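To whoever is on call:

I kicked off a structure prediction for a single chain this morning and the downstream step that reads the tokens threw a length-mismatch warning. I double-checked the sequence; it's 303 residues and nothing unusual in it as far as I can see. Pasting both halves so you can look.
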Amino acid sequence: MTNKKVASEIAIGIILLITIVIGGIFWVQNKESEMADQSVPPAIENQQPKAIAPTEKEGAICTQDAKLCDDGSYVSRTGPKCEFAQCPVAQTVKEGYKIVEVKNPSVQFSFEVPEKWLTETRNSGEKQISTEEMRDFLADVLNGDSQYADYTRKDFNKMSINEIEKMFKGSDWLPFPIASVGVENEITYSDTNLNQVDFYFLVDFDTKKTYFNEVIKGVNADGVKFEGTWANSVIGDNTVDIFSTPDGKKEISSGDSSGGKIYYIKLNNTKDMLIMNKQAMGDDQFEKDFANLIQTLEIKALE
């Protein structure tokens, strides 16, 4: 009887031990499940992480931090890998030269000229200028003794707003350039400045009756035939027609020789043109600097 009692107690103990172990396992698993549930906040699908936004095209989620570029601008992350966009490529300029940039809603271009060259871009059309700024522009560029513009600053100050605005637009015969560069003491549009290069932009070139159409026809408004030859070239992705006159001392519009060149640069559908007029042949240094202008000329037609 004693042995049976002992065996029975041992069996009961084993059963209790197994029960305790199994219960402990279930208790531990239950605690781990509760802790896992507590680690996930409710309604997480309604919470958005801060400082991130999807890109429009790739659908990637990129942090909205930015990188400072050498030119002072910033670029953000983009693309499927959320990599920083490329910084603008810094333009390298030769020592003693500067970059001239011209932009308006229709065209954008840039080129290099010597630092000492004068520049005029107020008529580029990049921004609207006030009547007083128009007065200043006209007084600066329409100076000297000329049949076209024999005016003083005092004369411009007396003009009404309508008169100033009308004169600022130029005329069908000679619109003001959108940009000019030159090596003389001043840039002028009243008399010939032999060491000056002027830029014009014309929309739907073939349909406009302008001074430049007369050059293409070879005869000006007074019936004077132009001396010169035509050549073709390419600047960047743009085809160019070049009208050259023989060497001389007179302006192209007089019908006499000048050694000047007019570049008709076709843009977009070839009806819009950027026109560059080198008024006359200069000395060796001027011609060298002009060749550098052509070499560094970059044009971007805007839609």
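Update from on-call: the warning came from a stale cache, not from the record. Cleared it. Sanity check on the structure: Residues 50-84 form one domain.
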